[in-house]
Amino acid sequence: MRDDAHHTDPGGSEDRQEVLRIHAFRLFWSATTIRAFGGSIAGIAFQVLIVTVVAATPFQIGVLNALSVVPYLFFGLIVGALMDRWKRQRTLVSTSIGRAIVLAVIPVLLLFDALTFWSLAAVMLTLGVLALFADSAAQPFLPHIVPRHSLVSANARLGQSETVAGTAGPAIGGVVFNVLGAPLLFVLEAVIHAVAAVLQARIVVVEAAPRPRAQGRHLGHDIAEGMRFTYRHKTLRPLALSVHVWFLGNSIVATVFAVFALRELELPAWAFGVALAFGGVGGFLGAVIAPSIGGRIGAGRAILVGRCLVVIPWALLALAPVGPHSSITLLLILFSIAQFLYGLAMGVEDANDIAYRQAVAPDEIQGRMNATIRTTNRVIFFLGTLIAGGLATWLGYPLSLGIAAMIFAIAALIVAFSPLRGARHEDAVYPQV
Predict the structure, then answer these.
(1) Which of 106, 114, 251, 390 is paired with 345 by a 20 to 30 Å CA distance?
(2) Maximum Cα–Cα distance for the chain, whole Å?
(3) Which domain holds residue 30?
């Protein structure tokens, strides 16, 4: 049941591109968008604090970066199970308030010259836990506020916002940091999350109460049930396995790409930044066309298109005959094309991937299904980054990127030779409430 109940006909003629006309989604999208920009701006500020104020060693920097992943590794499945029993809207509002309070602590620590490695680590760990709860609530909450046939458009809109924030946010963050300074910037960040909490609280939605647990059942049974559902489902199983393999490939790319460009090929920082900006352009364009692709060829084939497309840029970089003495123009064009295709692939597949998951699973298991996939992804990514370091050391950067391309190809093959390939969004069997 939604506040926009007249939009819920799965076969209706509503323009799928007009999802922002739905009041509840407009509030959700606004809150998500300002938090995405705030997060990108804060990311720059945190990096400056780590290097200049805390003067962290390389080992300490690694620890601080790992703290964003640790909550998922240890609590991801538990939180996912809780999200199938807690009110998701209340969780979103509470976590936004919590993040506002935590971020407001940073200016106080700076004012009293009390920001140390340990206090910053505590802040970042707390923010990581809050982000885990918020992310675990957001995906299963979305089907409550938009009709099933608009989930791709809704996820595409969210993807567009996140892409723009990820591309423009760091540049804006640098300017804002120089103008306001760290204390006022984090005050602004706290205000952004407080505004997000207000927007989320204004969403009018009815969430059904969870069914009582059978006698003798506990949280562990709930987690196991979520894992069984995910990996026994005829289309979710190949989707999950394909995503897991994709994350392994992406962990290698994320570890090797910047070092290959900046250190091995000596690409200037400005050119590297331009290439990354093309990734943002590709991601935005991919999110724009994702709904039409998914509607035309189906969810499974749209995901397959994204999986196949992502192979090209890394194979291109692996095979290109370039070196430190190659012209900057050639390297800039090559890396810009690679980043554009990488972003385009993710923009197309993400909206269709997430929307299909949201549509095909019953509401009472959404939190556990998403947590199962997301937690496994992060474990694989964490292990993959360790493997990537060894690959780059022993085999070199181009061959490491070639291995990543082959892993991405395996992720595509899993989709191609499974029932997922023929899946369509409109065939999802579980209507959303």
Answers:
(1) 390
(2) 70
(3) 5-201
Q: Are residues 230 and 95 in the same domain?
A: no
Of 201, 234, 269, the position where a domain reaches its end is 201
CATH of residue 313's domain is: 1.20.1250.20
139: Cβ–Cβ under 8 A, 6 or more apart, which residues? Answer: 354, 357, 358, 366, 370
Question: Are 228 and 162 members of one domain?
Answer: no
Look at the chain and report how many structural domains it folds into: 2
For residue 192, give the nearest of 50, 18, 42 by alpha carbon: 42
* Sequence-ordered list of residues with C-beta below 8 angstroms from that of 47, at least 6 positions apart, any chain: none
Examine the domain organization and report whether 123 and 232 are in the same domain. no
pLDDT of residue 276: 86
Q: 333 — alpha (psi -120 to 50), left (phi > 0) or beta?
A: alpha
Q: How many CB atoms lie within 10 A of CB 379?
A: 16
Q: Give tens-digit pLDDT for 49-102.
A: 887 777 777 677 767 777 777 888 889 899 999 998 889 999 999 999 999 999
- The DSSP letter of residue 150 is G
Report whether 176 contacts 41 (CB < 8 A). Answer: yes
Q: What share of the chain is helix, strand, coil (3-state, %, to 5)?
A: 80, 0, 20
User: Mean pLDDT, the chain, as a whole number?
Assistant: 87
The pTM (predicted TM-score) of the whole model is 0.84
Angle between helix axes 70-83 and 117-141 (nearest 10 degrees) is 30
Query: Residues 250, 170: one domain?
Result: no
Q: Flag whether 211 is in a domain.
A: no
Point out which residues pair with 205 in neighbouring strands: 2
Provide, rounded to the nearest whole percent, the portion of the chain with pLDDT above 90: 52
For 210, 211, 217, the CA distances from 214, given in Å and listed in that order, are 12, 9, 6
Residue 206 in any domain: the answer is no
CA 324, 281, 353, 124 torsion-angle sign: positive
> Helix or strand or coil: residue 202?
coil
In a domain, 208, yes or no: no
Is 142 part of a structural domain of the chain? yes
Task: Give Cα 300 to chain centroid, integer Å.
Answer: 20
Q: Are residues 383 and 320 in the same domain?
A: yes
- On whether both 224 and 109 belong to a single domain, the answer is no
Torsion of CA 166, 169, 173, 176, to 10 degrees: -170
> Residues 236, 365: one domain?
yes
**Region of residue 216 (left: phi > 0; alpha: psi -120 to 50; beta: else):** left
* Helix or strand holding residue 224 (H, E): helix 219-232
Do both 266 and 184 map to the same domain? no
